[in-house]
Design goal:
By secondary structure, this protein is mostly helical. The protein has one domain (20-225). Helices cover 72% and strands 0% of the residues. Bound molecules: protoporphyrin IX containing FE. The site of protoporphyrin IX containing FE has 21 residues, from helix 2, helix 3, helix 4, helix 6 and helix 7.
């Protein structure tokens, strides 16, 4: 009688199959989607007036997070692992796709794929490039002209006062939105939640989510550029 494979061996064997890579991509994507939504809701406190102590809600929120080391570093560890798993599974799935069709189509007229799905392999790297710039801009400050630790509201307003920086954020958010639209829809499929009967509703849900994230995030540089938030 053969001994049962260990859970680690079974997990690795599952990951070796394309469906395993898709599941990892979908689950890591789910973590990132939850972060993008939570981060946007937190940042929208930019619009709230200061409290009775004169402190702005966004600064109080950032300070509370910075002072909760287990939460902050726990979230950073989960996010870093999710980003790495998402990239690794994307690269390995791309490799499998190329191996399945080593010679590209002479003439490729897509019928079933959407613009968003065809752009996944370059919208992903652009979002990653944005993320690296964004961390240097608002978290560590090296790419910020006037960075002040823990003055998050002032950093955001000063950062977005530079018109070409705001323009870059707006373009990156449009790119993130196309990535999210196809990503959320694929996630439903990879996790086995899609069914022909609900396809239109799931696609509409993915689109609504992508538009909501784009609108909320784009509103912030626009509010600073137009002087709505000072
Ligand atoms: C207009 C849109 C956005 C604004 C105004 C914004 C603002 C900020 C600010 C102010 C910080 C620093 C917070 C602090 O130090 O307490 C930050 C950190 C961060 N942002 Fe954004 N963000 C935006 C969009 C995004 C997007 C789309 C992503 C992901 C794709 C993202 C990912 C992150 C990450 C990973 C951090 C580091 C969190 C940490 O570990 O401290 N942000 N953001």
């Amino acid at each position: 009688m053969t001994s049962p494979a260990s859970p680690i061996a079974r997990t690795l064997r599952f990951y070796e199959a394309p469906i395993g890579k898709k599941a990892v991509m979908a689950l890591s994507g789910l973590v990132l989607v939850a972060f993008v939504l939570g981060h946007m809701l937190g940042n929208l406190q930019l619009y709230l007036p200061p409290g009775p102590d004169g402190k702005h809600a966004l600064d109080a929120y950032a300070e509370a997070l910075q002072h909760n080391a287990p939460l902050l570093w726990g979230a950073r560890a989960v996010l870093t692992l999710s980003v790495l798993a998402h990239i690794l599974s994307a690269l390995q799935l791309a490799q499998l796709k190329i191996a399945a069709r080593p010679i590209p189509y002479v003439r490729h007229t897509p019928i079933a794929s959407t613009y968003a799905s065809r752009t996944m392999y370059w919208s992903g790297p652009i979002v990653l490039a944005f993320l690296i710039y964004h961390l240097l801009h608002f978290t560590t400050g090296q790419a910020h002209p006037n960075f002040q630790p823990l003055q998050v509201r002032a950093n955001v307003i000063n950062g977005f006062s530079v018109w070409y920086v705001s323009l870059f954020y707006i373009a990156a958010m449009a790119m993130l939105s196309t990535h999210l639209y196809h990503g959320v829809w694929s996630m439903f499929q990879s996790l086995g939640l899609a069914h022909p009967a609900y396809t239109p509703k799931l696609k509409l849900g993915a689109k609504a989510f992508a538009v909501l994230i784009a609108a909320g995030n784009i509103s912030m540089p626009l509010a600073v550029l137009t002087g709505l938030v000072k």
